[in-house]
Specification:
single chain, Jelly Rolls, 160 residues, five-stranded antiparallel sheet
Amino acid sequence: MVGFLSAHPVVHQSNNPSPAVLRQSFHELVIAPRGRGLRDFTRDVEQWVGENQFKDGLLTLLLRHTSAALRIPENADPDVRRDLEAFFHRLAPDGDALFSHTTEGDDDMPAHVRTALTTVNLSIPVRGGRLVLGTWQGIYLWEHRTRPHSRRVALHFIGE
């Protein structure tokens, strides 16, 4: 037997007699890392979710830059972050003669390569007013440039 997907919208059902009201909200965080490395900003995101009293929905984050990334790595052991940085240093070392794009320095093209291998967006469920993250997970900005920069992260929530 072949199964078919229904074209009908899914209706949220609960014991609450009143229907769920969906809303959306936008916000932008500015993060200023001091240079290359991973910077935890989980608390900033949790604070925004709490202040807005979001219940259940989906939070999307977009980093508006091409030489940094967003990650959800392990947040308990700092060796994980050091090992990630060491691995990426080996993959895309600063000053590599392979790269011709050096407009902003020897770390310019390696930073773009690192971003291409990672991601600039994340989607995180929100359930019961809390981010649905694992025990050892945190939200990090991964700066790939050696100089300090100001980075903008757009946040978009849709849900209840």
